[in-house]
Amino acid sequence: MKIHEYQAKDIFKHYDIPVPVSCVARDTDRVRTFAEERGKKVVVKAQVHVGGRGKAGGIKLASTPDEAFRAAGEIIGKRLKGLIVDKVLVEEAINIKKEYYLGITIDRKSRKNVIMLSTEGGVDIEEVAARSPEKIEKLYIDPAFGLKDFEIKKLCVKANFHKGLSREFAHFLKSLYKLYLEHDATLAEINPLVLTEEEKLMAGDAKILLDDNAIFRHKELETLQEIAEDDPIEQEARKNNIPYVRLEGDIGIMGNGAGLVMTTLDMVKREGGSPANFLDIGGGGSAEKTRQSLELITMDKNLNGIFINIFGGITRCDEAAKGIIEAIKSLDLSIPVVIRLAGTREEEGRKLFEAEGFEVGRDMNEAAKKVVELAGAYRARRENM
Ligand code: GDP
Ligand code: MN
Description:
By secondary structure, the protein is of the alpha+beta class. It has 14 helices and 18 strands. It has helices at residues 5-14, 28-38, 53-56, 65-75, 125-131, 149-158, 163-182, 219-228, 232-239, 258-270, 287-298, 317-331, 346-355, 364-384, and strands at residues 22-25, 42-46, 59-62, 79-80, 83-84, 88-92, 96-107, 112-118, 136-141, 185-196, 201-203, 207-210, 244-246, 251-255, 277-279, 305-312, 337-343, 359-361. Helix 2 (28-38) runs antiparallel to helix 4 (65-75), helix 6 crosses helix 7 and helix 12 packs parallel to helix 13 (346-355). The radius of gyration is 25 Å and the shape is elongated. The chain starts with a helix and ends with a helix.
């Protein structure tokens, strides 16, 4: 689960990690008022779940309240990489002397948490990793011993921190690591970690990912979840307990089993199509669950086609077919639907579909090709209307 920068920075404050004075604003007036109150240069930051907001125009520095007001007007209500920005974080601007990268995540290979520190801050860490991996210092933490002072010292030497700064960094890192453990996070990232002109360390940005499977251990985070969600369809899916991930394309995908759905996404891509979502209806596939799933998929107004991929095991294809047909009829869909069935009682299922006039692919390849074709035609027709 992702949370917003402002939510992450709230958590930082509780752990004594320095962050700029700030407020969250949903309108431009609030931004102006904040800038007036502080009487300083401010930075206006879009609060949506996308990376690289800076480059995309979602981060703006402003020297005066009027400038802040205008900057907010250019961000609030606008789209940033496809998502509408409905709120911003306004902060007192930091006087940046140097930007570092600091992150903690799980290294699955070594089965340890790993701390990463880089002098190449402010840029995408993936970029640094690809271009100059030697500029990322890594510290693997032995779960039996935890984070040791001498290890932090070594890290500071590598980053060329002077003595005073090393002491501050040690405190900073220990707090971040504590927060990371106590929240069952899978990532805690500060990019940039800022060394200010005043020689202080401060979190310029904040990203925390929480382990979905551990959220139940943190009642206080459940409310965060509600607020953190940007996408209304994903929110609805979560309520109905349906694994759904919104993607950027126009072909709705559903199947039974996560692996099958992933493969379906790949197939559609290979045929030149673009999936609109990931949705796993799981085993059983009751008519009710099928209808809910279809309803979810079709909440996406970009949709031009639907691909339903069913593997019959314990779930019988003919049972699944009945559920799907009923669901499609009850929703009165006009979008083309392509089905692929394999496994237990496949033939019976296919006959049920064909009797209703549905497109059933012979195999996954053919079905993928078909749905891409039909979606293209549907899109063209929509555009001409
Ligand atoms: P991201 O692009 O989504 O990662 O957003 P960040 O919060 O990391 O901001 C991107 C960049 O904007 C930073 O690396 C800084 O260079 C710049 N920036 C952000 N906040 C401030 C600030 O308070 N003062 C100054 N001078 N630059 C800032
Ligand atoms: Mn950043």
